[in-house]
Amino acid sequence: MTKIIRNTLMSLALFTILTGFIYPLVVTGIAQAIFPRQANGSIITKDGKVLGSSLLGQQFEDPKYFWGRLSATTPYPYNGGSSSGSNLGPNNPDLMKAVQARVQALREADPLNKEKIPVDLVTSSGSGLDPHISPAAAQYQVARVAKARGLDEAKIKTLVASYTEGRQFGFLGEPTVNVIRLNLALDELKN
Amino acid sequence: MTGNDIFQIVLYFGVLLLLAKPLGDYMARVYENQPFVLDRVLGPVERIFYRVCGVNADEEMDWKKYALTVLVFNVGGFFAVYLLQRFQGVLPLNPQKFGAVSPDSSFNTAVSFITNTNWQGYGGESTMSYLTQMAALGVQNFLSAATGMAVLVALIRGFQRHSSKTIGNFWVDLTRSTLYILLPLALIWSVLLVSQGVVQTFSEYKTAMLTQIITYDNPKNDAQGNVIKDEKGNPVTEKAQMKEQSIPLGPAASQIAIKQLGTNGGGFFNVNSAHPFENPTPFSNFLEVIAILLIPAALCITFGKMVGDKRQGRALLAAMVIVLAILMVLCTQIEQKGNPNFASIGIDQGASSLQPGGNMEGKEARFGIVNSTIWATATTAASNGSVNSMHDSFMPLGGLLPMWLIQLGEVIFGGVGSGLYGMLIFAIITVFVAGLMVGRTPEYLGKKIEMFEMKMTILAVLIVNALVKIGTAVGVSTKAGIAGISNPGPHGFSQILYAFSSASNNNGSAFAGLSANTVFYNTALGIAMFLGRFWVIIPVLAIAGSLAAKKKVPAGLGTLPTHTPLFVSFLIGVILIVGALSFMPALALGPIAEHLMMIGK
Questions:
Q1: Fewer CB in 10 Å around end: N or C, chain A?
Q2: What are phi and psi of B586, to 5 degrees?
Q3: Which residue of A has its CA nearest to B270?
């Protein structure tokens, strides 16, 4: 028994050094050498200021910006320090309340739009930090954004098209639009 | 189901099986001590390991000593993980200055990681220092996986050997699994994941200046830090503004690679692989979901090779693929149909080239429906338990399927090692039932299955089964248990049932709305995880020891062949019947009741 305990303590120590320190350090070394941008959070900067990460969504409620998925993080949406889904069951009345509030907000911001609303625009993402929406959800908002900015709809449409990514390698995942990158590009457009 | 849905599922199984074959052959070489390339490079490291640890690699163990060593080693691991959490506040590599984790949460997490469950009672980015993530959780991601593989190899030796007292050396099986299988794969996977945007750094969290400032209702706290509530019980709030976003970082890729390959599943961040930094692109998603089933699938090939009849391994793998494929397709169909409650309020849930449609609550836009349901069923078929969507927000029957896959005993692929030894338990039950039908002593792989093996087999199945139900019963009949529920009606019952199913079967996923970071759930689920792991390992090793001691009997005319489609369907039948009889009554009170109430509205 004492031998097993001695074996245990020594092997735990060695495995901790190997898999707990050497392994992550080697991976960090390789990552920082080959993929520094990705390994450090895919940060977007402008004039030395950090504007966000192209992988983390941000909250947009102004009609002149494209809106992203609903975010269930607390105490405020898109809290990068505390990722969370809503975890509302499909029949939970709170889910209906959240969805209806979003439907109402979208309709009020653009009363002329009578289209059906794409489902990803009225539901919470799993992470609360989803940077993407579907191309359908982006197109639904084009008219509103154009009007709020006093710009030609066609111009916004072209911009959305250029920020629409198809399936990865043509077959993996779903087509998406990156909301934070699209909105930053919108602001550039104005200038 | 859309054409794309079908394509993604076929692609998934195709690539999985293609990779499983060479890896399975490779692992057989590792365990059989046949030469392969890596042993020439890492051989010296292996020998230094044995010398420093005082292990004699040639010394074999009988099943009792093997089991004792497994237990002592894992209890040692428990204390390491527990203490690192309790003292992380004064230890280095803690750039966010997180304090000690609470005693009950530390207990739960320590049990969770040594048992390969990786139930997450905590939120990684707001609780754990980088040191805890690496040296406590990361290390156990390797070691709990290697423990499962070691126990499996010991059981396989029970079938291989005859008239033998011993079943191998745990230290050798553990070291070789880690050094030659898990580490190299994890290294490849982590670099590929970083290329997609998974973070890997030791620097502290960054802060971004938001493009649009957020105004929100902030709950007011009293002097003790408790939320102040008004007379209706709602929290009192004040208007607040947020101008910044915290960007969490850390050595995540190295952790995530092994969490998937080792069927661990504990996330670096709170929402696990739904988090864009854990799983940023469809390709990272594909890599991770392949990793979930890769080793469990390949071990079937290893098994066939080691027992000298490749068809035996393929038969077990076929049973696993068939059950998973059917449930995966069903789950996709249910989720793709969407939520009928939304039909009347002008929401478009139809799939098109511009949107995935379906039930998108709790799912990420880049994964849509099918890549969420492939993951949900794969992660619960395996005892992985990582998630890329929130199972709590699945449709009632869509959520039933992952839960049932867990309740089947984590034998459809299952955990690395543990899945296949669980499946072999069911294979033994199957030959036993078949033997009863024709009135003949059952045999499996040339070994007579007798009283002792059957007792141990039934023990292994019944204990986990009982843990789920007793745990759920305690959960729904105590105040502390009910307090955790976040969804009303039958769904609340489902949350508790899912929690105890997941813990007892060492899965680790959750209907995550359940507030489980409480003394009650941390303790109760911790006990369920511990018993669910080691009270299966001990009977399995006992069977290994008993089989190794037996003589081989040559297959006769009356022997049931165990590699035929007939046997595969018989095996599937036994698994599904045991799973259905055990859990349909409980499922009827949860997801099935919720579904009926929903369509009856």
A1: C
A2: -70, -40
A3: A83
Is the same domain home to A48 and A131? yes
Report residue B555 as tokens.
């297959």
Domain total in chain A: 2
Claim to verify: residue A136 and residue A93 sit in the same structural domain: yes
Q: Are A113 and A48 part of one and the same domain?
A: yes
- Average of per-residue pLDDT across B307-336: 97
pLDDT of residue A190: 60
Of A8, A86, A87, the CB nearest to B73: A8
How close B121 gets to chain A, by Cα (Å)? 13
Q: Classify strands A117-118 and B347-348 as parallel, antiparallel or unpaired.
A: parallel
Across the interface, which of A16, A49, A61 has its CB nearest the CB of B209?
A49
What backbone phi and psi angles, to 5 degrees, belong to A159?
-65, -45
**CB atoms B216 and A77 under 8 Å:** yes
Alpha carbon distance B169, B149 (integer Å): 13
Residues 6 or more apart whose Cβ sits within 8 Å of residue B33: none
Domain annotation covers residue B278: yes
B227 touches chain A (CB under 8 A): no
In what helix (H) or strand (E) does residue B11 lie, and over which residues does it extend? helix B3-31
Q: Which of B138, B175, B361 sits opposite A124 (nearest CB)?
A: B361
- Residue B219: give the domain boundaries: 206-247
Same domain, B104 and B233: no
| Contact call for residues B434 and B552 (beta carbons, < 8 A) | no
Residues A73 and A135 occupy one common structural domain: yes
| Residues A126 and A139 placed together within one structural domain of the fold | yes
Answer yes or no: do A53 and A136 share one domain.
Answer: yes
Tell me the average pLDDT across B29-44: 91
pLDDT beyond 80 at B233:
no
Q: pLDDT truncated to tens, each residue of chain A (191 aa)?
A: 899 999 999 999 999 999 999 999 999 999 999 999 999 999 999 999 999 999 999 999 999 999 999 999 999 999 999 999 999 999 999 999 999 999 999 999 999 999 999 999 999 999 999 999 999 999 999 999 999 999 999 999 999 999 999 999 999 999 999 999 999 999 998 65
- Domain range enclosing A168: 42-190
Query: Is the predicted ipTM greater than 0.85, yes or no?
Result: yes
Structural domain contains residue B254: yes
In order of B36, B395, B404, B438, B590, the CA distances from A92 in angstroms are 56, 11, 22, 52, 14
Cβ distance of B123 and A38 shorter than 8 Å: no
Per the structure, the count of domains in chain B is: 2
Worst-scoring range by mean pLDDT, A2-11, B43-52, B229-238, B404-413? B229-238
Q: Which of B255, B361, B393 to mutate to test the interface with A (most CBs of A within 10 A)?
A: B361
What percent of chain B lies above the pLDDT cut of 70?
100
